[in-house]
Amino acid sequence: METCTTDTVDRPTSRSGILGKSRIENLADGVFSIAMTLLILEVRVPEIADHTETWELVKQLLAVWPKLLSFCLSFVVLGVYWVGHHNQFHYVRHTDRPFLWINIFYLMSISFLPFSAGLLGTYNTQQVAVMIYGFHLTTIGLISYWHWAYAWHHNLLDPHLDPRVYRMTMWRILMAPILSVIAIGLSFVSLTVSVLVYMLLLVACILPSRRDWRFSVFRRHPSSE
Amino acid sequence: METCTTDTVDRPTSRSGILGKSRIENLADGVFSIAMTLLILEVRVPEIADHTETWELVKQLLAVWPKLLSFCLSFVVLGVYWVGHHNQFHYVRHTDRPFLWINIFYLMSISFLPFSAGLLGTYNTQQVAVMIYGFHLTTIGLISYWHWAYAWHHNLLDPHLDPRVYRMTMWRILMAPILSVIAIGLSFVSLTVSVLVYMLLLVACILPSRRDWRFSVFRRHPSSE
Amino acid sequence: METCTTDTVDRPTSRSGILGKSRIENLADGVFSIAMTLLILEVRVPEIADHTETWELVKQLLAVWPKLLSFCLSFVVLGVYWVGHHNQFHYVRHTDRPFLWINIFYLMSISFLPFSAGLLGTYNTQQVAVMIYGFHLTTIGLISYWHWAYAWHHNLLDPHLDPRVYRMTMWRILMAPILSVIAIGLSFVSLTVSVLVYMLLLVACILPSRRDWRFSVFRRHPSSE
Amino acid sequence: METCTTDTVDRPTSRSGILGKSRIENLADGVFSIAMTLLILEVRVPEIADHTETWELVKQLLAVWPKLLSFCLSFVVLGVYWVGHHNQFHYVRHTDRPFLWINIFYLMSISFLPFSAGLLGTYNTQQVAVMIYGFHLTTIGLISYWHWAYAWHHNLLDPHLDPRVYRMTMWRILMAPILSVIAIGLSFVSLTVSVLVYMLLLVACILPSRRDWRFSVFRRHPSSE
Questions:
Q1: What is the C-alpha separation between C190 and C173, in angstroms, rounded?
Q2: Distances (CA, A) of C85 to B79, C115, D154
Q3: Between chains, do C111 and B37 touch, taking CB under 8 Å as contact?
Q4: What is the ipTM of this complex?
Q5: Is the alpha carbon torsion for A110, A111, A115, A117 positive or negative?
Q6: Does any CB of chain D come closer than 8 Å to the CB of residue B54?
Q7: Which among B149, B169, B152, B161 has a CA at the least distance from the CA of B219?
Q8: pLDDT tens figures, C29-68
Q9: How far apart are CA B217 and CA D104, in angstroms?
Q10: Considering the entire predicted model, what is its pTM?
Q11: How many other C-beta atoms lie within 10 A of the C-beta of residue A112?
């Protein structure tokens, strides 16, 4: 009977009385969903002096497209990192104080995205905006990598986790900052190409990789879960 | 004893190590509640130069009504889709990667509503605003349909789900985009009629249909739940 | 064993396949916490032309007090209604479609508070702002009353609920709209008195009443809970 | 069997039918995550007349640093208090009405942070902004202390809680208001030193203290948890 009680109350909490896994996930879900929804505040309703001028409104609405593109791009970025964060947490069994704070810094970098997205949407013809966006993506990716590597090296993960799954996930995480750095470099050639690399990165993250299928095989074995 | 443990921890998770049902629902609840509350930011407190001029304030407050109407309309739209999303998830037993991403694109279309609502509230006399609003509703409805059809065709739903319930729900989902397209067409005749069709659509979604009652009968049989 | 499973998965869901209790509570918690936090957006950082002019900044900060007061007042209003909503839900055992929609309209009236609060904070010397605020509080209170009465008359509440507790709660809910109407009336005499009545109302809601203690006695009997 | 049911449904609720522990934690998580994400709204995308002027944009972006610093500082402040709030709640076993309202006032002080942060970011050269920020931190700290002391003196905490842990936590909580008062005092000497003290305070809160390790020893004994 005790087993039941212990398992339903969130067991995989912390080793040191610090915040457990489910609480961090809760805060992360909150920050992600708010950052996603705040992005729309950067796409403002155009203001025109004479509300009856149809063509003026249409023209202004068409001019909104860079902001719209930045909104969609950034929403998908947040989606990718939200999925990534939960995938990592799927294997987390313990938390400790530094791990908790890596999470808070991670969320800080996430909640900063509406700024970079707004910048890219407003100054889409400026290299500096494209570079800051890429730099921001790189930062999020590196903190994400730090998060995963810390959890592994401090034995916070499921002890049954196959080291190959660890390494696969690691490379998957590193793909984003590597491609972002390439995109920053390409911004010296063409801003359009640079933004296309960001999009390519997202498509790569969304599409299931072969690794993903091997991954699913590993998981299926412990049939009780 | 193991049954207990397995059932209380969210069992109906994913087949491929990807995010489970309850996490997606959590993100969706977050995005819906934030989008609902952000709508109010489009209804701005009127600013008048002289704070003591009562009639000027009253006049400005009365002029707020199109924004207020758009707020109410859009809040109910979000309510309808929130109910619809959860109704669909009630039958979901598994998730996979494409399903997860359909959900994220669905939430993207949801979080975009404060923009369309702001547009409709500010330019209520412009056909283009009414059309964009209708186009947006159509998009949400079609993604919602895609969500439901994908889950069915990829066996992500409860295997005991009656195909008739599946089809009924499908038609219920399609009702919104069909009526929205009609409303867009009617906007060429009269903007007021067009907005009235949106309202009618909401009333139709709120009111319990005969299907709803048959639905409840289907569900009552598996008495343990 | 089945009892365990059935009880831990949220049993007190709906009778008609519609959204269960815990999902509504989730959305409500989201809307309440966002509305509470959005209130601060109405208290804007003063903008002065010359950033080095200390006295100008101090003067502008002191002028912020009506907005600050409106922020505190409205935050406590939201706190009172959040507590009230959960107290009501404590007894809810079933949900149905109309009950779900009463909840959504209730949340609509809640999410509208940042507007009324901003109005009161900006035009604290205008009777119309004080009246709209009172009218808004009355509306929230009446929907809250509808919520409770509907749940009672449609047998959605715990069948062991003492009718006296039902009636006590009903009067407690009605206290807010009654006092708000009085405050609206008093606004013809003095705006300060009117705002004081709103504050008095909050204090009355925060303070534990004698009923509260009797209430706690009722609850203590079913010792297993 | 009943033990199972009782334990999985949130047992450590209230003694008086009032809101239980998990609901308060839910609201707190919501308010914290929103306040964290709203901070970014104070870091606005610079607006320049001619969108093609690169150097003007770069200059404006560099001028954003005080707002960026205030964003990071305030995000970490919210992180520290979020951790602190959950650490306190880890020991809470019961709630009562005054405790509930201390929590709501606590959240009010938390949700006010975007204002103080915006003030500090905009007027970083003005002593009054630095002082208001420090005064705000002091207030949050004192309410946090009140929260903890109230819970202890009204027997709302885990009865097995070691009084030494209670006192250690108390001093840890009081460290923030004490250092904030010192920072306010130092603002008369130098604003930079004052802000550095705020940062020092955060570093002290993030770093694990020796107490933390002793703390973890206390907790490890009840091995079932």
A1: 26
A2: 18, 21, 25
A3: yes
A4: 0.82
A5: positive
A6: no
A7: B161
A8: 999 999 999 999 888 888 887 777 888 888 888 888 999 9
A9: 43
A10: 0.85
A11: 22
